[in-house]
Amino acid sequence: MSHVPVLQFDGQFIDVQWGNEESVMQWFEQYFGWSRLQEEDWKVDPRCIQGKMNQMNLGTWIISYVANEALPHHYAEREGADPNIRLCFRVRDLDARQSLFVQDGIKVTPIYIGAGQSRYFDFWVPVENFRLTLQEDPSIEEGEIEPSWIRLGVSRLEASVTWYETFMGMSLVEDHSTKGYVIMKLKLNHQAADSWWVIEQCDDAAANRIDGQVQPSCWIASRDDFFNYHQHLKDHGVAISDIGGFLTRGMVSFHCYDPDGNRLNISSM
Questions:
Q1: Is residue 30 part of a domain?
Q2: Does residue 129 form part of some domain?
Q3: Any domain includes 56
Q4: Which ranges of the chain does DSSP label H, i.e. alpha helix?
Q5: Domain around 236
Q6: CA–CA distance, 121 with 111 (Å, rounded to integer)
Q7: pLDDT at 182 (0 to 100)
Q8: Phi, psi values for residue 60, rounded to 5°
Q9: Which residue numbers in the chain have pLDDT < 70?
C-alpha cells in the first residue's frame, strides 16, 4: 500500500496582510471580473487573534490573519525574490490585457514565449505585489479568464519529475524535456477532471525555500491519511512544516518543499 494518498488540487491561497484583503478583492473584481463567492470571519489557526477567509473565482481564497506568535503553516514572505511558481490564467486578449495593465501603472513583464509555445506575461497585483501570469489562448471567449496550468521552475528537470511522481503522486502526461519542460497532472477536487502542472527547467531556480504569497493547495480526503502522509514525508527527508490549523477537529494544513524550494500546501478536514 502506498504511503502517498491521492492528492487533489484544491485551488490556491493568496496570503495578504491584515487590512489589505478588501483592496486585493477589489482588484480582482475590476481586472478579472471576479465575484466574492464566500466571505468568512474565520481564523486559519486557533492561535490567531483575528482572521478572514474570502473565496473568489477558480478556487482562489484570499486569506488574512493576525497572530502574536509565529504560526507553523500560515505565513508568507513579502521581501526578496519571487518564487519559481507561476499560477497561470488563460485569456484571449493577451496584448490588450497587457496594454491596460501598463496604462494603469501595474507592473508587467514583456510578453514572452513559454511552455506549450504559448505567449505569456507576468504581472504583480498592486498593494500586495504578488506575481501572477496570463497566458494567451485564442479559444477563450473575449474578456473571459479561465484556469491554466501551474508552472514550477526547477534546476534538475529529470530528478524533479521523479520527485513529483514519488512524493506527490503526479502522473507524467507529456514529455517535452528536450524543450526544457514536461506536463504532469493531479486530480482536481470536486471535479471529474485533472489539474495540469508544467515542471520546467529554470537555470536560476532558487536553492532556498521561498514562502511566496501565492500558494497552490492540495487536498487529502481522509484526515488519517493526511497525518500519515505528513509523517511519511518527514521520514523520507522531505522538507516540511509542522501542522497548523485545528488539530483535534477542523481544517488542518502543512506545506512541503520540492528539492528547489517550491512550496506546496496540503490540507484536510
A1: no
A2: yes
A3: no
A4: 21-31, 94-103, 157-168, 223-235
A5: 80-268
A6: 5
A7: 98
A8: -100, 120
A9: 1-2, 206-207
AA letter at 104: D
Supply the DSSP symbol for 84: S
Average pLDDT for the chain: 96
Identity of the residue numbered 241: S
Beta bridge partner(s), residue 62:
14, 54
Please give the pLDDT value at position 1.
44
Check which CATH number belongs to the domain holding 142 and give it: 3.10.180.10
Whether 157 contacts 251, CB under 8 Å:
no
Count of domains for the chain: 1
One DSSP character per residue, the chain reads --SS---EEEEEEEE--TT-HHHHHHHHHHHT-----EEE---SSTTEEEEEEEEETTTEEEEEEEESS--SS-----SSSPPSEEEEEEES-HHHHHHHHHHTT--BPPPEE-GGG-EEEEEEETTTTEEEEEEE-TTSPTT--EEEEEEEEES-HHHHHHHHHHHH--EEEEEEGGGTEEEEEEEETTSSSEEEEEEEE-TT--SS----SEEEEEE-S-HHHHHHHHHHHHHTT--BPPPEE-SSSS-EEEEEE-TT--EEEEEE-
H and E: helices and strands count for the chain: 4, 16
Antiparallel, parallel or unpaired: β 60-67 and 194-201:
unpaired
How high is the pLDDT of residue 203? 80
Which three cell numbers, joined as nine digits, stand for 267? 490540507
- Residue 161 identity: V
Q: Is residue 75 part of a domain?
A: no
Taking the model in full, what pTM does it have?
A: 0.96
> What is the helix (H) or strand (E) element at residue 203, kind and residue range?
none
- Asked whether the beta carbons of 241 and 193 are under 8 A apart, the reply is no
Give CA separation, 43 vs 52, 67, 142, in Å.
6, 10, 38
Q: Which residues, in sequence order, are bridge partners of residue 50?
A: 66
Under a CB-based contact definition with an 8 Å cutoff, are residues 215 and 3 in contact? no
